[in-house]
Design goal:
single chain, two-stranded antiparallel sheet, Heat Shock Protein 90, 15% strand, 37% helix, globular, Arc Repressor Mutant, subunit A, 6 helices, 192 residues, 2 domains, alpha+beta
Amino acid sequence: MYPELAIRELVANALIHQDFSETGTGPMVEIFADRIEISNPGKPLISTLRFIDHNPQSRNEALAYFMRRINICEERGSGIDKVITSAEIFQLPAPNFVEDNKFLKAIMYAYKTLRQMDKEDKIRACYQHCCLKYISAELMTNQSLRERFQIDAKNYAIVSRIIGDTINIGLIKDYDPTSKSKRFAKYVPFWT
């Protein structure tokens, strides 16, 4: 049900980015009927909204170097990109990264239909899809998001609502705000 590559990357990240100064805790993998949660102690070094595009920044460089040497990770900062790409390929809801002051939790969800996804799931998927497109030197469109959700072209209005909701909370924006054409609109992440 879950992409092996995504689980491997999330577990490797939990090990590499754990904060060893937090005592009495360590990385943890919890498996539930509808999700897998992988957590590690320590506040992330960068915003969870920038995991996709940010340059690699490791809390434990020696451990990251060792994990690269044994072919578990690459130290290129592309692990989260692979996780999100895998979720799209497997048609899973977008992964969620929950930050607290003492830990980070990455959640991979089991398959849900579009109707089973809540508004937050759809917005998160739209934002992550937009980020993946942008770092691949492409731009998100209604069509690309329809393909991500496997929605027929005749149902473009469903995707338009998801895009509108994601714009309204400030996660994405129009690539060309002067254009009046919604049919050919393109979108970029808020940080561009």
